[in-house]
Amino acid sequence: MTLVEEGKVIGKMELELFGSLSTKSMEGVMEEEKKFVALLRERGYKYEDPIYSLGFFSSTHLPYIRITQRGIYDVKKKTVLFPAIMR
After folding, report:
1. In contact, 21 and 29? CB cutoff 8 Å
2. How many alpha carbons lie under 13 Å from residue 49 in its C-beta half-sphere?
3. Whole-number Å distance between alpha carbons of 21 and 61
4. DSSP secondary-structure letter at 85?
5. Which of 7, 25, 40, 62 has the fewest other C-beta atoms within 10 Å?
6. What is the pLDDT of residue 87?
7. What pLDDT score was predicted for residue 47?
8. Angle, alpha carbons 33-36-37 (nearest 5°)
9. What's CA 72's distance to the chain center, in Å?
10. How far apart are CA 51 and CA 75, in angstroms?
11. What is the DSSP letter of 9?
12. Interatomic CA distance for residues 28 and 57, integer angstroms
């Protein structure tokens, strides 16, 4: 996961194994997550758990608009509103 501001990477959590697991120790992951969340909070993220939120942004079993590999997807209408690659 990467946080980019004005075109520059300002924070990241590397999940090297299948994009969902880290090879770091649990303590290392916890420290990295704490820094990542602090950066988000400084920028106005107000919800409890941003990592948990990311999982729901793409969950197409939930209604309304979701972010998928195909693009921005309207679950109820079963249509891609904005393709991932717009030409």
Report:
1. no
2. 5
3. 23
4. S
5. 7
6. 60
7. 87
8. 85
9. 14
10. 22
11. E
12. 26
Q: Do the Cβ atoms of 23 and 16 come closer than 8 Å?
A: yes
Say which DSSP state 3 is in. Answer: E
Residues of the chain with pLDDT under 50: none
- DSSP string for residues in 17-81: BTTTB-SS-HHHHHHHHHHHHHHHHHTT--SS-HHHHHHHHT-TTSSSEEEETTEEEETTTTEEE
List pLDDT tens digits, range 26-47: 999 999 999 999 999 999 999 8
Identify the residue whose tokens are 């997807």. Answer: 73
* Domain boundaries defined on the chain: 1-46, 47-87
